[in-house]
Amino acid sequence: MPQTNLWPRLRPLLARVERPARYLDHEWGAGAPAGDAFSFCMVYPDTYELGQANQAVRILVNAVNAADGLAAERAFLPAADMADLMREEGLPLFSLEGCAPVGEFDVVGITLPHELAATNVLEVLDLAGIPLRAADRAEDDPIVLGGGPCALNPEPYAPFFDAITIGEGEEATPETLARIRELRDAGAPRAAILRALAAIPGTYVPSLYRWRTEAEAQEAGSWAEPIEPGVPAAIERRVFEGFARSDAWEPTVVPYTEVVHDRLNVEVLRGCARGCRFCQAGMMYRPVRERSADNIVAAVERGLAETGYDEVSLTSLSSTDHSQIAEILARVNGACDGRGIRVSVPSQRLDAFGVEMARLVAGQKKGGLTFAPEAGTQRLRDVINKNVTEDDLFGAIDAAFAAGWRRCKLYFMIGLPTETDDDIKGIASLAQRAYDRAKAAVPPDQRGSVRMGVSVAVFVPKAQTPFQWDGQISPDEVLRRVGLLKRSVKYKAVDVHYHDPKTSFVEAVMSRGGREAADWVEAAWRRGARFDAWTEHFDEDAWREAATEVGLEPEAIAQVTREPGYVMPWAHVSTGVSTRFLALERRRAAAGETTPDCTFGACTGCGACPTLGVDNELAAPRVAPAGAGATRGADEGAPRAGAPEGGACHG
Amino acid sequence: MADPSLFRLRVVFRKAGRLALLSHLEVARALERAVRRAGLPFAVSQGFSPHMRIAFGAALPVGVGGEREFYDLFLTRYVAPAKCLEALRAGSPDDLMALECAYVEHAAPAASVAYPLSTYRVDLTAPVGEWPVPDAVTVVRKKKEKELAVAEYLAGEMLLADDGRSVMFALEAKPTGSLRPDKLVDACLALMPEKSRPQRAALTRIAQSDGTTTL
Ligand code: SF4
To answer: Given A200, A227, A271, B86, which residue has the most CB atoms within 10 angstroms?
Structure first.
C-alpha cells in the first residue's frame, strides 16, 4: 500500500520551528521513498544533527536498500520545539524520504547508541503513534526492531521492542526483514513472526523469555528463561565476517544543515583488542578486521568526488592502530593535495608514532590534541589494562609540542575499581608534569600559549566488560574526588573539566539494570524526561520520582559491587568474549597484571574468535614501534577516542 | 584580493522548492559541495586553513526562494562556461540547480554588493482585495528592537496582481543595512483583519539589479 505523504501538512509548520533544514530530506545522496516495496524505517533516537552522520544509520539504510524488494528510509527525533508543535497539530513522526508516518512502515528499526537514549526511544514510539510496549501492539502495527551498542544489555529496553539484533547488522538486518516480509506475505500473525525471528541467529525476542527471580537466575546461570521449546537460551552476537573485504566506500547522504561528524567517514577497521577492562567497545567488536590500504584510498577518492565534502575522517575506534596507517595517510594526502581538504584520524595511541600520524595530516593549522591516559598512576593503569606508561605519554607530549601543537587535553576516569585518593592526586601530578614537558618542548617565547586540559568522566560499569561486576561511586563521592583533584592541581594553565555525575548515574543504572529498569524508563518518560544526554534537558527529578513510583532502587543497581561469579542480567547475551575470560581479567586487575593486545602477538584466549568463527584479519602484520607502550595500550571507545583535529592537507 | 591569474566565473542558480527553507549559510555550504562534486579547478586560499575561493551574492532569509541567485567562483584555469555549467548541473540538486555560467571581470563589484536592488514576489494562500503597506517595520537587531522606515528601502510601490493572489515589490539594500522582504510582507499582512488574512504561500526573489543592468 502506498504510504501517506505528510509533506503538505508538514510544510506550513516549518516556518514556525528552528532549523527547518533538518526536516526537509532532498539532501545530496538521499534515497527514494519506499513506494510499494516492503518498507523499513531506520530511526535514530535523537535529532538529525546527532543522528544523520551515525554509522549504523548509514550502514543499515544502504544494506536494506541493496537487498531485493526491500526499501529503507530514515527518521530522526524532531527537536523539542518541533515535537511539541507536532503534538499540538496532531502530526505523527514522519520519515524523511517519503515524509510518511513512521507508523505506516512494515518494520521500524531504532538504534540504541548510548545509555541516555532510552526515553527518546519512547518519545519516538509515542510520536509515531506506535504502542510503547510490544505486548500492546496490534497485528497491523509495525514490527519494532532494536540494535546497537546498548543491545548488549537489552533488558532495560526489552518490553519496548519486538526483537533486538545483537551485534553487527549488515547481514542480520536485511535477513530479518526478508523473513518478516515472507511471513507477512504468507499471512502469518504477529506472534508467529516473532517466533520465527527468534530462530534467526543473533536475534533476541524478549517476549519469548520469562524474567526469573534473582535466586532462580543465580541458580540457572541466566535471568531470561525461554518460555517455549526451540527458543535459544543464549543469543550470540552477529559479526559481519566479510567486513575487511567489503567496499570501504558507502553511499553517503550529504546534509544541508550542519551535523556532528559532517564529513566523509571512511571506516578503515573494526574492532579493538587493546583490552582495556572498562571498555565495552573493546570487547564488543572483536575480532579486529582491517580493510586494505587500496580499498581505503579508493573509497576516500571516490567518496570525496561523489559527496563534495572538504573533510574526510578515517574512522574506527583507533585508526592509527591500522597496520598500514602510514601508507594510507601518505596516499590520502597525495590524493587531496591542493584541494583544501582536511583529514582526521581518531587515535587511541599514546606515543610518538601516534603524534607523527596526526602531524602527517594536520598541515599548518594545529588545533588541540587529545590523549587518554585514563588513570593518574601506573598502578591504576595496570589495573584497567591501559598499557601506557608515563614515558609513553611524555614522549607523545614532546613530539606534539615540538611539532607545533600548543594545546592538549588529557582524559581521565574517576571512580575506577580500586581507585584511592593517591590515584586522584596522581592525575594532578601527571597533568602538571605533562605541562612542564610541553613547555620545555616549545620555544621560550611561545611558552605562554601552552595549555593543558584535564577532562574527567565518571566510571560507568559497562555490561560485557571485566568491570561489569563493579559498582559506580555515588554522585557525592564523585564530587568529593573532583574537589580533591581540583585542589591538587596547582598550575593555572592546567584546567579541570568534569562530567555531571547525575547523568553518569542514570547511565550506570541503564548499563547494569535488568528488565525492571524498563518500568523506570517509562515512568521517567511519562514525567517528561527526554533528551537526557542534553544537559539543558536532563531532568533529575523525573528520574528520581519515577524510581519511587515503580519501587526501583537505582542506587542498588548502579553502585553495588558483585563477585565475578554473580550472574548479571545480560548473561543470556554473548559477545563471544566468554564470561570466564571477563572474570579472569577482573582477577588480573585485582592483582595489577596486564594482558597484551592479541593483534600484536599471541591470542590471549578471550573466546571471541572460536565462538564466532571469525579471526583477526589484518591487512599487514602489526609491528610494535620500538619502545612504544602503546602497542599494549587500551581504549574506551568512540566518543572519547582521542581525535587529533585535522588540519588542511597541503602540498 | 583580485588575483589576475584566476578566472572569475559567475554562476546563476535557483533556490527553489523546499530548499527555499535553507539558511544562507546552508546554501553556501551546499554550493561549495556542488562545486567540488563538479570537479571544477577551483582556487584555494592560502593560509592556515585553506578554503575554496568563492563569493556569494546578497543573502536570502530562511524561507525565501530565488529564481536567479548567483555566486562568483575563482578558477585556476579556463574552462568553457558551457562545460562548467554541465559539470555543475550534474552535481547539483534540482532545487539549487545551476542555470547559467559566464566569466566576469576582476574589476566588477564584489558579489555581495553587485546588485543592491532586489525584486520579490509573494504568493498568497488566498486572494486579497487590497494590500496595505505600513510606514515602518519593527525588527530585532542584536537583541534590540528597531523601527525601519519602509520608504527608505522600498523602491516604488508594492503591486498587487489583478487576481489578488500575489504582490510584487522591490527593496534596495543600503550600506547601513536592509529591510528583510519576509519581515515587510509579514508586517503588511498584520495590517489585515485576522479573519480574512491570507498567509504567504511562497516568497521569491525574482530579479536582482544594480539600477542599470539586471542579473
Ligand atoms: S580470541 Fe584470541 S585472537 Fe581472537 S580476539 Fe580474542 S584474544 Fe584476540
So the answer is: A271
Q: Rounded to two decimals, what is the model's pTM? A: 0.94
What percentage of chain A has pLDDT greater than the value 90?
87
Q: 554541465: which residue's cell?
A: B86
CA A285 / ligand 1 centre spacing (Å): 11
| pLDDT higher than threshold 60 for residue A39 | yes
Q: Which has the minimum average pLDDT: A347-361, B149-163, B193-207?
A: A347-361
Verify whether the Cβ–Cβ distance A308 to B91 is below 8 Å: yes
Residue in B39, B48, B63 nearest the CB of A305: B39
Q: Do A24 and B35 touch (CB under 8 A)?
A: no
**Record: contact B52-A310, CB cut-off 8 A:** yes
E-state strands within A182-304 = 203-204, 209-211, 224-226, 235-236, 264-267, 269-270, 289-290
d(CA A382, CA A467): 14
Map out the domains of chain B with their CATH numbers: 7-103 (3.30.70.580), 117-209 (3.30.70)
Q: What distance in Å separates the CA atoms of residue A354 and residue A464, rounded to the nearest whole number?
A: 28
pLDDT at B181 exceeding the cut of 50:
yes
Candidates A7, A15, A340; nearest CB to B63: A15
Superfamily of domain A243-516+552-650: tm_1862 like domain (3.80.30.20)
pLDDT tens, residue by residue, A267-290: 999 999 999 999 999 999 999 999
Residues with CB under 6 A from ligand 1: A 273, 286-287, 598, 603-609, 616
Tell whether ipTM is more than 0.90: yes
Looking at chain A, which residue has its C-alpha nearest residue B41? A339
Q: How far is A334 from chain B (nearest CA, A)?
A: 16
Report the pLDDT averaged over residues A7-16: 94
Q: Nearest-CA distance from A167 to chain B in Å?
A: 34
The pLDDT value recorded for residue B2 is 61
Least confident of A225-234, A341-350, A363-372, B203-212: A363-372
- Give the atom of ligand 1 at the shortest distance from the alpha carbon of A610: 1
The DSSP 8-state label assigned to residue A241 in this structure reads T
Higher-confidence position of B2 and A132: A132
Interface probe with B: pick from A9, A252, A310, most Cβ of B within 10 Å: A310
DSSP annotation of A567: P
Q: Across the A/B interface, how many CB contacts are shorter than 8 Å?
A: 76
Test site for ligand 1: of A239, A283, A580, A609, most ligand atoms within 8 A of the Cβ:
A609
pLDDT band with cut points at 50, 70 and 90 for residue B191: very high
DSSP H or E segment with residue B90: helix B81-90
Residue A283 Cα to ligand 1 middle (Å): 10
Q: Where are the domains of chain A?
A: 7-165+169-236, 243-516+552-650
Q: Say whether pLDDT at A603 is over 50.
A: yes
Determine whether the interchain pair A21/B21 forms a contact, defined as Cβ–Cβ distance below 8 Å. Answer: yes
pLDDT-above-90 percentage for chain B: 85
d(CA B79, CA A539): 58
Dist. CA B208 → ligand 1 center (Å): 66
Nearest residue (CA) to ligand 1, atom 5: A287
- In this predicted structure, which of A70-79, A414-423, B144-153 has the lowest mean pLDDT? B144-153
Query: For residues A265-279, b (16+ Cβ closer than 10 Å) or e, as one string?
Result: bbbbbbbbbbbbbbb
- Is A308 in Cβ contact with B22 (below 8 Å)? no
How high is the pLDDT of residue A636? Answer: 29
Instruction: Spell out which residues of chain A touch residue B32, defining contact as CB-CB under 8 Å.
Output: 308, 310
Q: How far apart are CA A484 and CA A115, in angstroms?
A: 28
pLDDT at B90 over 90: yes
DSSP E strand boundaries for A54-161? 70-76, 107-111, 143-147
Q: How many CA atoms lie within 13 A of A407 on its CB side?
A: 8
